[in-house]
Amino acid sequence: MRIAVLSGKGGAGKTLIAVNLAAAAGRSAYVDCDVEAPNGHLFFKPTHIKKSEVAIKVPILNPLLCNGCRACVDFCRFNALAYIKETVVVFNDVCHSCGGCVYVCPQNALSEREIPVGTIQSGFSKGVSVYTGELKIGMPSGVPIIKKLLDAKDLKQEVYTVVDCPPGSACTVMESIKDADYCVVVAEATAFGLHDMKMVLELVRLMGKPHGVILNKWIEGEASELTETCCREEEVKLLGKIPFDSTLGTLNSNGEIVARVDDAYRAMFSALFETIKEEVKG
Ligand code: SF4
Ligand code: SF4
After folding, report:
1. Residues with Cβ within 6 A of ligand 1?
2. pLDDT in tens, 87-146
3. Is the same domain home to 128 and 194?
4. CA-based angle 240:250:253, to the nearest 5?
5. Which protein residue's CA is at the shortest distance from atom 4 of ligand 2?
6. For a pocket test of ligand 1, which of 97, 104, 117 has the largest count of ligand atoms closer than 8 A to its C-beta?
7. Are residues 104 and 230 in the same domain?
8. DSSP for 41-52?
9. Could you list the residue range(s) of the whole structural domain that residue 70 is in?
10. Of all atoms in ligand 2, which is nearest to the CA of residue 110?
11. Fewer Cβ within 10 Å of end Cβ, the chain: N or C?
């Protein structure tokens, strides 16, 4: 069962929820797909670390063979190639590694080379297999790292996998939720959080994913109630509310997993996990 946890912006509590759901699940996997700023491992502090590099293939030109026909430029739908000053220029940042230009070149003037874009790391923390992807600084897209993370052979053997998605609704988020059985949308229970929640709800609906909402930093009052009313109006399952609580805030900012160190929060996240399991079963 793959559960994706996502939010419209950073700081809404996505990692807090994802980490604690994985911890509450007992034997499970936690996958940090927030590859531009992965921080789940700071809570899990995994041991037995294995690390590997992720590379993508981009075309490279042999100018001696190129006759300037521009077939490669015309083929590339991503505008990753241009013919400038009588040579082919490759823009690695927008290349999608499809290999098509190499295939269509009549002169065999293009070949492929690998460039590293980041790393993936795996380790263990009290029954949880912890996977982390990290994008190299300056690299344009985390999608290849997320693909590799979620395709890991060991991951397929896990009964429960919790995916900590990147914030927002970009292509990295779509890649992260693509194979999810259920999406948990985390939103701040504020008027500002309402906008982000609606944006992410639109995405999960577009992708046809079953979903529910967790409202974080809940305080009794008009602003928080607005978000609850929105869930009712949008006919979205409200999975739970996480209180705006100093104990939780302190433990979390100290890098503790509250479901492991606090009985009340352990019970709360276990109950949340059971609710999600029931939702997945339908
Ligand atoms: S590999 Fe594909 S995306 Fe990259 S430059 Fe060639 S045609 Fe364009
Ligand atoms: S298709 Fe080959 S020969 Fe034609 S411009 Fe591109 S690299 Fe040069």
Report:
1. 59, 75-76, 78, 80-81, 95-101
2. 999 999 889 899 999 999 999 999 999 999 999 999 999 999 999 999 999 887 899 999
3. yes
4. 90
5. 69
6. 97
7. no
8. HHHH--EEEEEE
9. 63-108
10. 7
11. C
Q: Are 7 and 177 a contacting pair, CB within 8 Å?
A: no
State the pTM of this model: 0.90
- Residue 36 forms part of a structural domain: yes
> How many Å apart are CA 282 and CA 277, to the nearest integer?
9
Ligand 2 close to Cβ of residue 67 (< 6 A)? yes
> In this structure, which residue's CA is closest to atom 8 in ligand 2?
66
Distance 112 CA to ligand 2 centre (A): 14
**Does 204 reside within a domain?**
yes
Q: Is the pLDDT of residue 282 over 80?
A: no
- As for how many domains the chain has, the answer is 2
Average pLDDT, the chain: 93
